[in-house]
Inverse folding.
């Protein structure tokens, strides 16, 4: 059961995401370009050489108008409609996860963003986070080693804030889905053992004892939650952006939670 705070955060994230879709659709829709009908000169009005000469543009006027039109088009599209990102870094942990998982493990991220304008877009990310168990957690599990990781997917509004020509910052926030998988090596915990705080976090056992079927050794958890993050970016001469990002990931399902905070360095292109 997601807590009151998590439920409120999910409702807020859903409302913001819906609002972003509406704003995105409005920004992306082409505006009407209707032109007033040109006034035509009456057929019986004689044209004089002086009038023709007044309407004839000078030789240097057309290139100036074309250059101005090109500049306007560039100014109107000074952003990428589609942008991709890849990054890697390390995790820090929080919440109950911090009690059993050590920080500093590897994480990687890849995603894409559809931008409505230079300020607002919608970004989809996939993240891998290694969540190695602490030594005390292995002792509680009566195991010699373990593999533990999380895969997550996020769909967030992204707000870009240009600071200078080369520097910028951005913010993301929205819903997330986390799939956590674990595997214990040489575990000697008997099925039906008391369900301690570690086993409740690791397997999600709801009864007073771990499952009798032994599946607690290789558990999986599917959790819904939210994520928030921020980053700073720097354009390089090639046009690619180098960025540093910090994000908080939270998932919950029936009282089982997963919390990790990726710190990544990557590229947007």
């Amino acid at each position: 059961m997601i807590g009151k705070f998590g439920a409120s955060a999910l409702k807020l994230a859903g409302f913001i995401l819906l609002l972003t879709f509406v704003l995105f659709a409005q920004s992306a829709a082409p505006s009407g370009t209707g032109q007033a009908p040109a006034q035509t000169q009456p057929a019986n009005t004689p044209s004089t050489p002086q009038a023709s000469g007044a309407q004839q543009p000078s030789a240097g006027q057309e290139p100036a108008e074309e250059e101005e039109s090109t500049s306007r088009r560039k100014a109107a599209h000074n952003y990428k409609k589609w942008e991709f990102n890849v990054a890697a870094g390390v995790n820090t942990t929080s919440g109950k996860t911090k009690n059993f998982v050590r920080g500093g493990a590897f994480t990687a991220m890849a995603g894409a963003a559809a931008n409505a304008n230079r300020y607002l877009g919608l970004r989809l990310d996939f993240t891998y986070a290694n969540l190695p168990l602490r030594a005390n957690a292995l002792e509680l599990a009566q195991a010699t080693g373990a593999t533990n990781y999380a895969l997550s997917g996020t769909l967030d509004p992204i707000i870009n804030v240009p600071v200078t020509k080369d520097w910028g910052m951005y913010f993301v926030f929205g819903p997330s889905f986390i799939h956590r998988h674990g595997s214990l090596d040489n575990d000697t915990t008997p099925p039906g053992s008391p369900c301690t705080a570690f086993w409740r976090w690791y397997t999600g056992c709801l009864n007073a004892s771990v499952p009798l079927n032994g599946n607690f050794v290789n558990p999986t958890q599917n959790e819904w939650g939210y994520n928030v993050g921020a980053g700073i970016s720097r354009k390089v001469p090639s046009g690619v952006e180098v960025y540093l990002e910090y994000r908080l990931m939270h998932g919950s399902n029936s009282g089982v939670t997963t919390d990790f905070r990726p710190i990544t360095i990557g590229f947007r292109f």
Notes: The beta strands are 82-93, 106-115, 120-130, 145-162, 167-185, 220-235, 241-253, 256-268.
